[in-house]
Amino acid sequence: MKEKVVTKNQLNKHLFLYKSIFYKNIKFKTNDNDEETQNLINGLNIKNRKNRIKYVFDKCCEILDNDFPSNACQFVNGQCIVQRQNKSTQKCGCCRYCEYVTKNGCPSKNVACKIFNCSEVTKKYKLKTKKDLYLLKLLSMKNREVITHNYFTIEEESLKDLYTLTYTYAFLRMVYRQIRRLFRKDKYLYLNK
């Protein structure tokens, strides 16, 4: 396998080309110590489509977790700051709509959920957004939309949507899950305990 040394500027200009089949047998290297550049190089060196998608998914979750301040939502007795301010009886903050959340938080990881933050949190902290995750450029345009709009889904379901080749099929899967949630009789039982 041939090696190609690239700089951050080259990556910015030619990333679309480097992702293509023309560079399938090229191993990329860089002399830049920038973490973002290293992540891109690592992703480009993963030539299997599913493995690259999984890498981007996991790495974006890690980046967002490291960026999120400890107890930014200020939970007290299961209620976030907004729910307490509004004197709401609901619990679990923004995650109250998710069927997977437990009293101890989310059992899975999801990029869309990690990007979404309420106005109270975004007022207090400067958090990463979709635009800040340059690593997403390793994905197709369809996958960038799916990964950032697939809310309230466990990791396995999100990855299945990302592995599909058409946006229509992934979109239908997302809509089906939303409709199914509306008609579940046992949803949100943990909130009443």
Describe the model.
- This protein is mainly alpha-helical and 193 residues long.
- The chain is 47% helix and 4% strand.
- The protein contains nine helices and two strands.
- The chain has helices at residues 8-18, 35-44, 49-67, 81-85, 111-115, 119-124, 141-149, 155-163, 167-182; strands at residues 2-5, 26-29.
- The chain has a two-stranded parallel ribbon.
- The radius of gyration is 19 Å and the shape is globular.
- The termini are far apart.
Key phrases:
193 residues; disordered C terminus; 4% strand; two-stranded parallel ribbon; mainly alpha; globular
Please specify the SSE layout and strand pairing.
Layout: E1 2-5, H1 8-18, E2 26-29, H2 35-44, H3 49-67, H4 81-85, H5 111-115, H6 119-124, H7 141-149, H8 155-163, H9 167-182
Parallel strand pairs: 1-2
Helix fraction bin: 40-55%
Based on secondary structure, the structural category is mainly alpha
State the total count of DSSP E strands: 2
Count of individual helical segments: 9
Low-confidence stretches: 189-193
Rg, rounded, reads: 19 Å
What multimeric state do the chains show? single chain
| Head-to-tail CA distance between termini | 58 Å
Strand content: under 5%
Largest sheet: 2 strands, parallel
Strand order of the largest sheet: 1-2
Shape: globular
Mean of residue pLDDT values: 87
Q: Strand-and-helix sequence, N→C? A: EHEHHHHHHHH
